[in-house]
Design goal:
Helix content: 25-40%
Shape: elongated
Number of domains: 2
Strand content: 15-25%
Number of helices: 5
Number of strands: 11
Strand order of the largest sheet: 4-5-6-10-8-9
Radius of gyration: 19 Å
Mean pLDDT: 76
Order of helices and strands: HEHEEEHEHEEEEHEE
Amino acid sequence: MAASASRQCNNISSLADVYLELPLFFVNHEANRIAAAWVREQGILMAFCQDRQTHAFLRPYDMNRDTVYVPAGEINQLSSSVPSMFEHVCCSEPSMARIAVPEEVFYQDSDTLAELLSLFLMETLYVIVGIQPGSGNGDGVQRLGGRWQLASPQSNMALVWSRSRGCFHWRGGETVGSEELHGRMEQAGKELIRTLDWIRVDCFEMLPVSVVRIT
């Protein structure tokens, strides 16, 4: 029973599915074949939407490859709700290896990041610079939902935690964000050292990145 509960907790099954728009699926037979192959490859589910009287495409959260974006205004709510969700269940901490937050978080209360780090088995914190998922795209159009993709995170500079040295250091790469943001990240890193030592984190890094909407 305990093992089963642990698996359920770590799946974070309460995260909402992402609704996708795939007009190519309904164009013609050839387009449908291509779109259907892509849908299967991506693990996307198709269901009939009664309200719209059409098929809808849903992509469940995949903890092995997805990044969870937490808007600045919802971090405290998430931090306060997680303990109550798991306090009556014998399971390990919920695992979200990759979490993304807006850059404005680094201009707010420094305790916020420590709370996130303590609650989740996080390895990478992406710092979203510029346009945010769910925000307007500059033409006055509000684009909610859909899929957003990190822009080349592997090639970006990163602030990396070294447990053996007991400090953070910058890993070289493409510069994203302002010098002021980088300074804020360095200061946040210093304030996170006690938490990192306390929960014995070996691997953790913070990367400034931008995002693009792909569907």
